[in-house]
Records
---
Amino acid sequence: MKNNKITIALAGNPNSGKTSIFNNLTGANQHVGNWPGVTVEKKEGSFFYEGIEFKVIDLPGIYSLSASSIDEKIAREFLIQEKPDVVVSVIDSSNFERNFYLALQLLEMGVNLVLNLNMIDVADKKGININEKVLSLILDVPVVKTIANKNRNTEQLKKAIATAAKKERVSNFEVKYNKEIEEAIKNIISKFPSQNMPANERWLAITLLEGDQYLFNMAKKVYNLTDIENIALPEVNKIEKKYNDDILSIIADNRYGYIKGLVNEILTRKKKIGREISDKIDSVVLNKFLGIPIFLFLIYLTFQIVFTVGSPLVDWIGQFFDWLGNAIAPLLIKIGVSSIVVSFLKDGIIDGVGSVIVFLPNILIMFLLLAFLEDSGYMARAAFVMDKFMHSLGLHGKSFIPMILGFGCNVPAIMATRTLESRKDRILTIMAIPYMSCSARLPIYVLFTSIFFPKHQGLIVFSLYLLGIIIAIFVANSFKILFFKKETAPLIMELPPYRLPQTKSALLQMWLKSKIFLYKAGTIIFFTVIIIWILSSLPVGVEYASKQSWIGQIGTFFAPLLKPAGFGFWQAAVALIFGILAKEVVVGTLGTLFGGAESLSQALPHYFTPLSAYAFLITSLIYVPCIATIGVIKRELNWKWALLSTGTSIFLGWFLAVLIYQIGGLIK
Ligand code: BGO
């Protein structure tokens, strides 16, 4: 207890209902910050119980305390350094065996534990019953059942926490390991000095056997065990030789052995009548042959809906902005506003920003559909389906989850790679994500496909999304061959149950994500468009947006590079250069240069053929997503990888466009 406040930490697997428990305990009394030194979100809150304040820390969702991922490291270091008074282990009771692994590690660590059996309703539906009284007796810790999404039993949980906080003695729980490990534990403990050691020497010995570097350092610094590696490593070698397996798997097997025994004592399953609906759907969706075609079909269907429903709305908004520009200009001139200001408002703001905003309906619909796919539990299946395929390329199936998030925005997708354990997998996935077609690219696709492929919009955009996935996997695989050669671990992934997506939640997600699009339109796109307007109007006296303007000169300098790709004119070069700031700017720039959404549909066919338009779409898909993505790669990895990713994407974007345009030209 610090300053009369009791600190409690919530620990649990992702999707165990930890956030719901946190919200139930703390209500509106919470705030969000970052864990020190990393950009992983840290949620803190508090509640009062019988006049005492309880501070609640929500640890990142993790599967174990092995400290191989950033989230696991954060959780473990917090538990060791901050020593919370009580740790609440939140468990999805419908998946007890898997979830209990973390609770078991917490018990071994010797924390003051309250076991929270959440999702009792789901377990019930599956015919699973857990005898919490026997469980509490065996483990010697309080056990509370909850249904967090309905705020059931929160008071009982608070009471159990308050009682545990007053407890003098914590459970002296132990897992009995096999003979060799027990001997090794004993040998290591025998080398510990007799004084100043932590209360739980056994736990320290086990984690040293697990080869935990943080604990080695701590043992050296805090407990003065300078020779600790020479003590632990021979023990590890002995065990690994005997079992012909690595120590982590041997220890994990022992723990799962314990859990199996425990489950026999406390858990009963009613015989299921027939298979559950979830299993039935999975047998089709995860089928070896049908899995990938179903995934591709759903993505294809998504874009068909995006266009069928969105395009008429886009046309209306486009007509509105055109009307606005044409109506406002003569009006302003009539009341004596100078022509330069009129041009700024019409050519710059209305044509430039307006030409991006018109695509809001497509963006809204896409986010809504992606939210439905995610909430229904399908997206996790998509990653599962892709696992085998990814694995055959030596990549981790888990990587596909952040990659799918990249369909929304590449920046949070890159941040989501923190859930990957190995640095190698993280790097490869981060290198792949920029090729996943984010929503910012959609306005370019909609604009060009509506002009050049009006009958096949959905199909063309589907081909771009698919190409993005293929290039992402190709790049990750190439980097793997170039920089890393080791094997990857198989995918251990839980499939969440299918749920009926909630319209409210999907609408909320759609709005939160679309807000970013509108925010960008009002900030980065707005300012870029102003810069483009200024560069198009200078030097003084030059015709607006002509080849002689400054922007015309910049574009003319780079245009020859784009000639082999079929769009070697200066406006395309300028649009692509400024598109590095944000992809929507490509459309905003063309809008400013050619005069708004409606005029674009008349102007662009003078510059592009369907073939060169497709080549332009390919470049837009592949080269640098935006400056924010480069920034986040630098932050998550370093400058070297950020520059390598930028260079690779620019080269590939150019090269593939040239290839398509040249080969397409031969076929014609
Ligand atoms: C969605 N019972 C049931 N049935 N569900 C629960 C319980 C419970 O006891 N506790 C939590 N949930 P988080 P992590 C959702 O968000 O707290 C549900 O990751 C949805 N979302 O409501 O987020 C909870 O912090 C769309 O469900 O867990 C949440 O550990 C449709 O489990 C999910 C249906 O809980 C995960 C549910 C967009």
Note: The chain has a mean pLDDT of 85.
---
Amino acid sequence: QAHLKKAACARPGRTVRFPWCLSTHFYTDNWENVQNFQARPDDILIATYPKAGTTWVSYILDLLYFGQTERQTSTPIFDRVAFLESTISPMGKDLADNLPTSPRLIKTHLPVQFVPKSFWEQNSTIIYVARNAKDNMVSYFHFDRMTRTQPEPGEWSSYIHRFMEGKMVFGSWYDHVNGWWKKKQTHSKLHYMFYEDLSEDTGREIDNLCSFLGLSRSDEEKKRVASGVQFDNMKKDDTTNYSTHCAMDFKISPFMRKGKVGDWKNHFTVAQSQQCDEDYEKKMKNSTLQFRTEI
Ligand code: PPS
């Protein structure tokens, strides 16, 4: 098994060009099967643009539903929450099919229009997490440096432009956050969350999640969850920090890197920030979405 895992991600991802994005074969090889995935009414789909807080919200949901069982303390989060379109071991669709839990927690980075239709037919619950563009970009850049599943990021100065042009694995951040935001207006089983809100007040966001999901948990339980999912706790926990994942080189950058709102200030020059803001105004001018780049 370990040998197979190593072989599965020994080489960098082959770049695949889809009309809507640049991808790698890791996320497209199983496309038909993913599109035909059979969702269930009690499934919970955690949808995000990459690096927006997927693992954080996954762990919150995992603890809210299942607590600290043996499975939680021994199985890495990427084996407990199925990454649907991924073909990196574990194969996401097969893992999702065989998850023993109810609800099944399933993660996707797909733009809203590519979510398998059975999620809508079954009226499954969806949690979308969004993060401000600048911090999301910085986090993605460092991730691209350290994982073999993504194309090399190149220089930061050119990466910013590629991000603004939407030439990223999983496509344009702007289209992603807006597409899901639009869907939220008509789909009542979609809860749209922000990384910045979670960072500001994790307890409040857990309360909101519980209300949305119809979960009654005691204040004590909710406090335990909020404390368990703090950045430092997740960073030192080998089941949540991705240290056992085959495709990542933590010597370059750890998965649990900084976990902050506003780290973009350590990366953008004043000119880069202005350019990004001007471009942002144009791309987001028709959107009612509001992001915070500091708290
Ligand atoms: S992935 O690969 O798309 O699933 O990555 P994802 O989990 O969406 O995003 C990783 C970033 O989220 C940060 N993170 C957290 N921040 C604060 N608190 C907690 N508990 C937490 N857990 C994960 C993680 O550090 C990455 O952000 P950066 O800015 O790179 O540190």
Note: The beta strands are 15-18, 21-24, 44-48, 82-83, 105-108, 125-130, 190-194.
